[in-house]
Amino acid sequence: MTRRVGFIGLGAMGYPMAGHLARAGYDVRVFNRTAGKAERWVVEHHGTAADSAAAVAAGTDVVIACVGNDDDVRAVTSGPTGAFATMSAGAVFLDHTTTSATLATEVASAARARGLWFLDAPVSGGQAGAEQGVLTVMVGGEPEPFARVESILGCYARSVRRLGPSGAGQLTKMVNQICIAGLIEGLAEGLHFARAVGLDAEAVVQVIANGAAQSWQMDNRAQSMLAGEYDFGFAVEWMRKDLGFVLDEARRRNVTLSVAELVDGFYAEVEAMGGARWDTSSLLARLEKGRGGRGPLSGAQSTPARRRPLRP
Description:
The protein has a six-stranded parallel beta sheet. A three-stranded mixed beta sheet has the order 7-8-9. With 312 residues, the protein is an alpha/beta fold. It is globular, with a radius of gyration of 20 Å. The longest helix is centred in the middle third of the chain and has 29 residues, at 168-196. α8 crosses α11. It has helices at residues 14-23, 35-45, 53-57, 70-77, 101-113, 126-132, 143-153, 168-196, 201-208, 216-226, 236-253, 258-272, 283-288; strands spanning 4-8, 27-31, 48-49, 62-65, 92-95, 117-120, 123-124, 135-140, 157-164. The chain starts with a strand and ends in a 24-residue tail after the last helix.
């Protein structure tokens, strides 16, 4: 494998991920729709910037993307300015975007037609995980290209696993989002109940976090939820995008997902409250809006240092 890697999409996740590759000694060529961000990345990490996905991919054995949605992936892979136009036969396109599973199989088929490899590889861990290099990567695709890029993934992930053929990575990410949605709603209802019955909610969390109720969400979001701080983290509108993929796939396969569907509806209510860009933990604000509870709706100010990162 060459030490040259192309990276497309320098959002809240992609920017630090590409930085880890540069620090690991890879020759990284980047492309971002907002050219200024690519130029800033080059100054910081000493790679090179390109003016299109096709230019990033030329002469590169591995091209990585972390963009916004299905249409964005199509845009950076297909057409005369897409990466597939200039990738050499046998090169690998690794996609970290969370998309539909059907998009993953569609693009994998287009890659095969050109003699290329495609891996769908959505991630979990958020911006903090990307910055710290401790992401979880769920991969769908063939074993051969996975083996070729596994060491590259290790530059910014602590857990990497191939789950099956094309689309398996995206389906696994759907499982991840189903579980997270239920956990956040459960935590929001628990905190809401603690306050409603007159308990010291912070003290309650300190106790139950040492038992079976403990979760990543409790450890990392309970305090900010109680403080009404939601202007950071993973946006409600992005979670709804992901749950949309989940519910579409479930309907297609005739799978019942009662809780996921319910929580998606709750997030729609948060959006109606003006919270499309709030963190997903803002489900508590929905529960407390009629009780004068603390949160963005009732005028609480978020901590200035915790400005929301924008997804690519």
